[in-house]
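BUG: 3D viewer hangs when loading the predicted structure for this chain

Environment: internal workstation, default settings.
Expected: structure renders.
Actual: progress bar stalls at 90%.

Input used:
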Amino acid sequence: MAIGQASQDFLGSSGRLRIMYVGHRNTLSALADDGFTQNNPRVVTTHVSTTLTGITKKGVLGSSVAHTRPDQGNNIVAGPLAPAALNTRPLGLFINDAQGNAYENSPGTASGKVAYVHAGGTYGCQVYETLGQAGGTAGNPITYNSGDPIYSSMNGYITNLAVDASEGVNGQNIGNVTLLGTVKAAPSSSLAEVILDLRV
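Structure tokens produced before the viewer hung:
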């Protein structure tokens, strides 16, 4: 750590994403309009994961997955498409909610951008899938274990089920989904988040 570097880079919290060791923070891309207005969950509303209980806020959530959105133009990010489209790829994890928090500044609304992290780092994600979303896994509880691979679900939250990956729906090649990272610590009665090392 460089002299004078903020310790929050290693132990900070930004709402639903806890930053333990940061990779790169990216603020170059504009957020698509639906990144401010999407419902949560975004795509599958029949199997709502327990980490979304009580969340009524619109727009992308902190610790949800940032995706390329070529349907909206060049250098645009947001949640995944419904239905998914080719070239919509996971990039990293949003740091904050698009709409911000009550009684705080709302930089996303003001700038049209919501920062996301990528290129490594260790994070605690408080929003993740707890139920399967597609096919034979739909509605079944998900168990996370240390060492599990992590993908973006079709809702844009982390999951360890490749069959639920946002890139695997609508006949896309399930073997070509993006590996987001690896679980370091699974959620438990004493840990209400998935701790992961980011790989994208």
